[in-house]
Amino acid sequence: MSEDKGKRKHYNKVTCYMCDLIETSKEHVPPKCFFPEQKDIGKSKDFRRNLITIPSCEQHNSAKSQDDMYLLFVITIHFENKPIAQKHFSTKIMRSLRRSPSMYKFLKENFLVEIDGSPSLAFTVDRNRFDKEIDHIARALYCFHHNSKLTLPIVVHTPDFFMVHGSRAVETNQRMQQIEERTIEALAHQPTYGENQEIFTYQFLDLDETGSFVIRMVFYGGFVAVAYASPSLKP
Q1: Res 120 pLDDT > 90
Q2: How many CB atoms lie within 10 A of CB 7?
């Protein structure tokens, strides 16, 4: 991917990964709350070893802690996750819920659905809030690997979210699955990164011919989020 198209901004290690403010802290990627503490899982495993960190300002680190917890909540309850996600939910997240019940008031917007013939509970996701968090993680990982800031617009695809209402629900769900299949195919020969792979892994690819970037993230071995950055997208 060439540097002469204004896609990237030089990454100064003393400024935030998202903006030009001076670094005041280190942001964990993904947020540290995603990695279970030993007090919750026992001393036989340490999921907080060798975590990725990058320079950050206050706004793009601790100031978004409530949004980090929202993202964690939405992702951990995905039914295809590994058991570690359920363990994390029953410990870390339940403690947070008891301290601040209003944090999860969005769960009032829930309804019954069927998954493979079995009843389950679904809820409405705040896509702006969710996508903004995934956007931050994608840009942070880009900075980590490229030592420069990704300034292109990003669109987030979530094949594990399903639209259940509306005339275009079936079409939208099929399109998400098609995007997932094409992404897996495009990344088939790319390395898989992640020190704690039960918690988080990712693959990425620079698409030099279009000046774009794609990253596929897997949380808890189940939930998938794809972030695609391209100069053709509208900011």
Answers
A1: no
A2: 19
